[in-house]
Amino acid sequence: MSALSMRAPGLPRAAVASAAAALALVALAALRYGPAALALPLAAVGTVALLQRPRVAVGLVIGVMVLCEGGGGDFLGVTAMYDPLPFALTPVECLLGVAVLAVLVDRLSSEESIRLAGPLTVPLVLVVLATAAGAVTGHFSGVDNEALIFGGRQLAWLVLVPLLVVNVIETERQVRGALAFGAALALAKSVVGVIGVAAGVGVVVEGATITYYEPTANWLVLLAILAVVAAVMLRARLPLWVLLSSPLLVASLALSFRRSFWIGAALGILLVILLGSRTPGRRIAVIAGLLLAAAVWALSLQPLQADAPLVKRAESLQPSKVEENAQDRYRIDELKNVTAEIRRQPITGLGLGGQWTARHPLGVEHENGRGYTHVVAFWWWMKLGIMGLLAYLAVMASCMAMGWQVWRRSRDPLLSATGLALFCGFLALSLVETVGSFTGVDARFTALVGAVGGLAVVLRRLALRPA
Questions:
Q1: Of the spans 106-120, 267-281, 419-433, which averages the highest pLDDT?
Q2: Of 230, 346, 375, 432, whose CB count within 10 A is highest?
Q3: What per-residue confidence (pLDDT) applies to 22?
Q4: Cα(165)–Cα(142) distance, rounded to whole angstroms?
């Protein structure tokens, strides 16, 4: 037997050739990109495993986007997940591609048709059409291809993630598992954030250490708080660990220093209490007392002197303080310039990657600030034209409508409470995004909005099914 024909008994020659080719590929990659390329075999094994478990793949994408912060200064921040790889994609985008492929393989192998996003389908189609129109406008306006691709990549999360969620969550049991997964993510972020503040290793804003400045963790924690309040109001049975973790959720949001989320939380909690209360009186008093106690407990984590950072941040909510703050004045000046651009091109906008012109003087200049606006509806209008504005409004209205239907039609108290929390959470988000643009702008936050929107689609389908 010649050396070329020697092989283990029963081992196919194709397998030997494939293994040799894989080893050669890894060796070449190691020579080109260094020792880090030796992780390729592990990545390949993980990819194969995820392709066989679409639900795990989708959960991993959402979990990574929530847990791994994007800022290098954040406590336990893992920015490597968002750094481009040698082939331009980021690790989280590769995970998203694996999840998409896993869902497609699962659907095709089971001969089941791919589920659409229910009432969210038309808004998502509008997002796709608006993105295409914005790319065309940007191209003919002279925007470079890199900026066009970057803008489209952020919006892709809003379209793909809801479709993934509705195709891996189908039964009520799976919905409950998804809710537990979301609650665990919110609790994990709260614990890490509060520990970061206590240890003094978090993000520093206005001289104080905060939990999270990025919006993803704050909105997820806000949704969890609303869900707990709604469950108590509707007498839904919650796991004990969720109830016991509520003070940590409140502390995480309070110590985030995000004034817009504070206002959104106040609006959301008030709406949950008003809409969820069937017998106003003692129950409302108990809830209000518990919330007040939790707020006092959270505030007690910092000294309550008049010059304490948390007190100063709360005082900045007063209208009289706005003109004294340079950043708040900048937002007013920015709004004047953005509205001037929209009036100039109300149909097409500036296109993806377009930047507004400072026709009105700015007191402060920010890096890359001309491509951003703090009012998200204006961002969609400015970047994607009038179709972009309609797409954003359609997405928000559809999510709120689905939350309302789940609350009113679901026979399960826990699912009904979840629907009420989603309705109030998206309404609070609409208020928050009048002073900060996140949906479609920030990839992590956009992925979270897509995941919650997809969950709302599944909850609505279960709530409207025949008894």
A1: 419-433
A2: 230
A3: 52
A4: 37
202 CB contacts (<8 Å, ≥6 apart)?
74, 75, 193, 196, 209, 210, 211, 212
Report d(CA 79, CA 85) in Å as an integer. 12
Token pair, residue 64, equals 């990574």
Q: How confident is the model at residue 1 (pLDDT cuts 50, 70, 90)?
A: very low
Closest CA to 427 of 467, 463, 399, 461: 399
**Rounded to the nearest 10 degrees, what angle do helices 145-168 and 121-140 cross at?**
170
Q: Which of 405, 407, 392 is nearest to 449 (CA)?
A: 392
Q: For the chain, give the longest Cα–Cα distance.
A: 92
The torsion angles phi and psi of 203, rounded to 5 degrees, stand at: -75, 140
**CA 76, 260, 350, 337 torsion-angle sign:** negative
pTM higher than 0.70 for the full model?
yes
For residue 436, give every residue at least 6 positions away whose Cβ sits within 8 Å of its Cβ, in sequence order, or none: 215, 260, 374, 376
Instruction: Write down the domain spans for the chain.
Output: 52-306+324-464
CA atoms of 40 and 36, how far apart (whole Å): 8
Read off the tokens for 442: 């920030």
